[in-house]
Amino acid sequence: MAKVKILVVDDEQGIRDLFTVILEDQYQVLTTDNGEKALKIIKEENPDIVFLDLKLPGMDGIEVLHQTKETNPEAIVIMITGHGTVEKAVEAMDLGAYEYIVKPLNVKEVEALIRQALRMSGLEQEVISLRKKMKKKQSEKMERKYKLLVVDDEIGVRDLIKTAFGSDYEVFTAESAEAGFDIVKAENPDLIFLDIKLPGIDGIEALGRIKKMDEKVIVIMITAFGGEKDAIKCMKMGAAAYVNKPFDVSYITMLVQNFLP
């Protein structure tokens, strides 16, 4: 089986060397120091993941991202940024970047982000094949609806998910971890949307308790931009995925349909 290809585009030799050292045993790592060469490699090698620095000599990272998404729309692009350019990185995500990481790089975070990106990419590739199956199942009268629990202190988030899934799933909501625990005990939900920032017991601690109550329950963490480190920590604790606020209904629908086919 061919190794996953990862392209690193950064004008700092140390960054390129770091990626090569930590990833070359598991992945095929390609590197370059500027945008023009990067576009050539992307066209010729079609890498699975591109780590792309925002600040590059000549063509900057935003322009490289734009052209990459025009020619390779399915490419997973993760921006590399400094603390002073986080706003630009968020702008890049609006243009199609999958995620961003901030220098100085954390090796564990890079590795976890790659695993998550590949898993999410796999989900997206499965959507087309799942659609026919989902339409058929949605047209059938199910003996038991799947149960979803939304734990979030924002009523807008709870109402959004309840509206999106209420016709096909049994949806419960809670505004605190404590209320969520009671519903987990009483209703045994199949999937839980769990906000990381909650009043009282936070989502990280709540995740640990929920997994002790039901280790098989599927938990999707909800976080805001800037909370990705906590979300990745939750993934290591057993969360199945995470979504950023504000999230796209079609994307969370795809996640739910994949986890609860």
Name of the CATH class of the largest domain: Alpha Beta
N- and C-termini, Cα separation: 28 Å
Runs in which pLDDT lies below 50 for 5 or more consecutive residues are: none
Number of helices: 10
3D shape: elongated
Whole-number radius of gyration? 20 Å
- Strand order within the widest beta sheet: 2-1-3-4-5
Could you please describe the fold and organization of this structure?
The chain is of the alpha/beta class and 261 residues long. The protein has 2 domains: 5-106, Response regulator (Rossmann fold, 3-Layer(aba) Sandwich), CATH 3.40.50; 137-259, Rossmann fold (3-Layer(aba) Sandwich), CATH 3.40.50.2300. The chain is built from 10 helices and 10 strands. It is elongated and about 55 Å long. The two termini are 28 Å apart. The model has no long low-confidence stretch (mean pLDDT 87).
What is the topology?
Blueprint: E1 5-9, H1 13-23, E2 28-32, H2 35-45, E3 49-53, H3 61-71, E4 76-81, H4 86-94, E5 99-102, H5 107-139, E6 147-151, H6 155-165, E7 170-174, H7 177-187, E8 191-195, H8 203-213, E9 218-224, H9 228-236, E10 241-245, H10 249-259
Parallel strand pairs: 1-2, 1-3, 3-4, 4-5, 6-7, 6-8, 8-9, 9-10
Helix pairs in contact: 2-3, 5-10, 7-8
Quick overview:
49% of the residues lie in helices and 20% in strands.
